[in-house]
Specification:
- The protein has one domain: Galactose-binding domain-like (Jelly Rolls, Sandwich).
- Helix content is 7%, strand content 36%.
- The strands form four sheets. Strands 2, 5, 6, 8, 12 and 15 form a six-stranded antiparallel β-sheet that branches.
């Protein structure tokens, strides 16, 4: 029994070392190609293999086989966009103002008033193996502001957590991003690469992607006229790799 246990421990340790080899991909299903079942409408991100939501907010997954009236590719309810690679991509509200109509407003500018809170969505996935203390990792993913978004927001990035996040709300997270885009995306319908390196504290095992107000909660109106008060982002091709020491 003892010899068998040692053998199993050796296998586990060896697997961890293999997963931490420089240049080896640590993100599972980073392009959202693998699904547990077909998608045909919004809020079906739970069907994406190895991914989940970090809050009660529900991201989406888009598919070339789905209807253009909801989550199709290239045309869907949020705009027109081809995948950065493959046949699918995910999407999330970086920011959506929860507003309600102010029927008693005397000023046309006060037609709407704030609701209970702003709304935001977050994608998360367990890595192949926990990150190692003091080791540098490179994070790369691609985001695009959807064509039907009237807003854009600062703070799109990725946070690495030791535990699976399961917040029972739909608000912004207070976690600090390890990698983030330092500017707001103002051009719609174009993939933007988010790339950065950071040194791991050790034991981080989950990547979380979304908008992090720690960077600054600035938003910008990107069109003239009617404002639908949301910033919706497509995301594709997520990658995390260990960086060679000499780089």
């Amino acid at each position: 029994m003892q010899r068998t246990l040692l053998a199993l421990l050796g296998f586990s340790f060896g697997g961890s070392l293999l997963a931490q080899t420089t240049g080896m991909e640590l993100v599972r299903n980073g392009s959202f190609e693998s699904l547990s079942r077909s998608v045909n409408t919004y809020d079906q991100f739970q069907y994406v293999s190895d991914w989940s939501s970090a809050t009660l907010g529900l991201p989406d997954v888009f598919d070339k086989r789905a209807s253009a009236k909801s989550v199709g590719i290239p045309v869907n309810d949020y705009g027109t966009m081809d995948p950065q690679e493959g046949d699918r991509y995910a999407g999330f509200f970086g920011w959506k103002d929860d507003i309600r109509r102010n029927f008693g407003a005397s000023d046309p500018e006060d037609t709407f008033k704030p609701g209970w809170s702003a709304y935001s969505e977050y994608l998360q996935s367990e890595l192949v193996a926990p990150l190692l203390e003091g080791v540098t990792y490179e994070v790369v993913f691609h985001v695009a502001l959807s064509q039907n978004s009237d807003r854009t927001i600062l703070g799109v990035g990725a946070h690495f957590s030791e535990v699976l996040l399961n917040y029972q709300h739909r608000k912004f997270l207070e976690e600090v991003p390890d990698v983030f885009l330092p500017t707001m995306i103002t051009e719609k319908g174009k993939w933007t690469e988010v790339r950065g390196r950071f040194v791991a504290d050790g034991r981080e095992q989950f990547i979380v992607i979304g908008v992090f107000p720690y960077v600054g909660l600035e938003s910008e109106h990107v069109i003239e006229g009617t404002d639908n008060r949301y910033a919706y982002y497509y995301v594709d091709n997520v990658s995390v790799k260990r960086v060679a020491e000499e780089e």
